Structure formats: structure tokens, C-alpha cells
Amino acid sequence: MSSGLAANKLFSPLKIGRYTLKHRVVLAPLTRVRSPEHIPDQKVVDYYAQRASDGGLLISEATHISVMSGNYDNVPGVYTPEQIRAWKKVTDAVHDKGGVIFCQLWHVGRTTAPSCLGGRTPLGPSSNRVEEGMVYFTRGGPVPYVQAQEMTEQDINDTIEDYIHAAKTAIAAGFDGVEVHSANGYLLDQFICDNINKRTDKYGGSVENRARLMLEVVDAVVAAIGADKVGIRFSPFGFFQGTGTSDILGHYGYAIGEVEKRGLAYIHLVEPRSDLLNNDDAKLQKLKEIAKAQGKNEEDLLSLKPFREIAKTTPMISCGSFDASNAAPPVEEGITDAVAFGRYFISNPDLPERLAKGYPLAGYNRDTFYAHGREGYTDYPTYDGAKL
């Protein structure tokens, strides 16, 4: 057993927006598909309550802002009275333990199926589809992605209104703030990526145009609930669901630079290594090719450091394959301000305490990440509980 990280900067206070965290170990947003008919139930309450800690930040699973935002099976929403009442039980349970919780607002764009949308065609920046061969797993089994319908300006305006409504209802449900999901190949990320966004209007073409929707959403949500209650997430190095913009540093650098001007509570970035796990040579080679074509250092395309230099005043959260061995240095070195954990927070509900005291981390069971019951969800014990 190690001596623990309690004396490390990872366990020092951090101000995000209007809140002062007591430590910098964050629960990453994790889709868990445990909300029947899109409404969190008691096991969802228990799950978040187990992972709450005094002064700790939890970011909710990605949460739909409307039916047209995706409506994935057993994924929660935050736009109806029933959902507000259900989430209020979750946020009350987190607050009872002194925790802070933000709701991640989610629109998946082209990456859903008509069966999830009542037969409607998914919306996207352009009329294209996720690459051939990829499928979406619905309640009825796997189905291929379909060609998206290019959003009209009215569709875009309606979507912005959906974000505003969801942000307000999240606050009504007791959330301390919201995180705008602009990562992982979902709608706002699709608009930023020039390999997906082929529009010729004010939302396409230049990076300024392609980032326009993301910034309009951010501005609208800020106007609705305040900048000190708003965070945003990006995954510059991800290739998930067909993303692959031609200038990672330039395009995401512009987006992050514009967000930096808005004084948000935080900027949440996914580390490049989370998308290069398991020696994924194809993805690594693609990054190297991009670097060579642009005459840039390969290391700049495998690090968040360039974005840290852009986002100098907004607190930064980093996420991606962190554990007890590598979480502390990035915070100590100022590369990031906080570290978000996914898989190890699933299997260690008392993760902050384990890291602080040097307790060993329990392993996780991938087979239960997207199951529907309590197994692999609320049945992981705390370190003290495991010893009983």
C-alpha cells in the first residue's frame, strides 16, 4: 500500500465558478443506461450518492436535452417534469454528502437511429452518416446508422432553445451547474470537424463558422443560468464516431480560445491517450501524418499543453486513463487543474479517499458498464466495506 496522495496538490482546494472544491478528483461523465424510460430511478440515486464526497465534483452521465437530441434507450433526459423530480432526488443525495454536481447536456446529432426518435431522421450539420459498418445498439438489437438530415437554421434555433430549456430545468432539478457536451463526435463536435461539417452557410466552411453553433449554445446557456455555472467538454484528439478534423490544434485551439473569453466555470478536455489505448497504431499514425503535413512537432499533437497555454485563466479538468500512479503530476506541473476519473470511479465509489490514503484500487468489470441492473453499478464496495 502506498503512502497516498493526501499531501499532493490533487487534494488542495480549487475554485470553479461560484464553487470551491475541497479536492480535485472528479467523477467523469459516464453513460450507464440505468434510467428506464429516460427517468432516473432509485439505483441512479444510490450510484451518485455513493460517489459523492465533501467538496468533490461529480459530472453526471450525458443527459438528453430533448427527444430529438438522441433519446438513447435507458439514458436519462432533463427536460420533462418527471425527469426534474427524479434528478432532484439525485442532487439532494449528493448535496447531503457535501458534494457538487453538474449535469452534462447532450445532443448526439447524427449518431442515433430513427427508432430512438419515433421514426424521425437524426439531425446533423450535413446530410451524411457515420461510416459504413458501424451500428447503433437499440433495444431491438443493432441497426446501421442512417444518413442524417442537414439541420436548417430553424432546426439550429430550436436546438439552441432546447439547450436553454435543459439548462434551466437542470438548475430546477438541483444541479449546481451544467457541462455542455462538445466532444466525442456528438452534435457540437460534428459541427467543428471539417470532415463532417460540409455546410456552405454561416455554420460551415471556416473554423469560425464551424464553431459558431457551439459558441451560440454556450452564450445562450450562460445567459440563462450564468457563466459561473457552465462548463464545457472537448475531445480534440478523439476519432470517435467518424470525427477527424484536419487541423487539431488550429480548430480546437480556436474553439477553446473563444470559450476562454467567456469566463466559464471550467474547460474539460479528454487526454489524447484515452483514444490511443491498446496500441492503436492506426490512430497514432493518423496523428503523426497530421503533424507532418502541418510541419508541427508530433508531441504537440499528443498533449494538452498547447490548449493549456490558450486557456490560461479558466480552470481545466483533464480526463483519460488516469489512476493512482499518474494523476498527481499533471496537477502539480500546472498542465491541468483537476483530474476526472471514469472506470476507476465506477469500481471505487470511495475513490477520493482511496487516492488520498493510498488504498489499492478495485478493478472494474467492462461487461457491466452498459448493463441495466445494479450489478457493476451500485454493488462495488468501499475499501472499508470490502474488508468486512
UniProtKB/TrEMBL annotation:
GO (cellular component) term, any one: cytosol
Boundaries of every NADH:flavin oxidoreductase/NADH oxidase N-terminal domain copy: 9-360
Record-level Gene Ontology MF annotations: FMN binding; oxidoreductase activity, acting on the CH-CH group of donors, NAD or NADP as acceptor
Pfam families: Oxidored_FMN
Cofactor(s) of this protein: FMN
SUPFAM superfamilies referenced in this protein's UniProt entry, alphabetically: FMN-linked oxidoreductases (SSF51395)
Keyword 4Fe-4S: no
Cited InterPro entries: Aldolase_TIM (IPR013785), OxRdtase_FMN_N (IPR001155), Oye-like (IPR045247)
Entry keywords, A to Z: Oxidoreductase
Keyword Oxidoreductase: yes
Similarity annotation: Belongs to the NADH:flavin oxidoreductase/NADH oxidase family.
Protein name, entry field: NADH:flavin oxidoreductase/NADH oxidase N-terminal domain-containing protein
Organism expressing this protein natively: Sphaerosporella brunnea
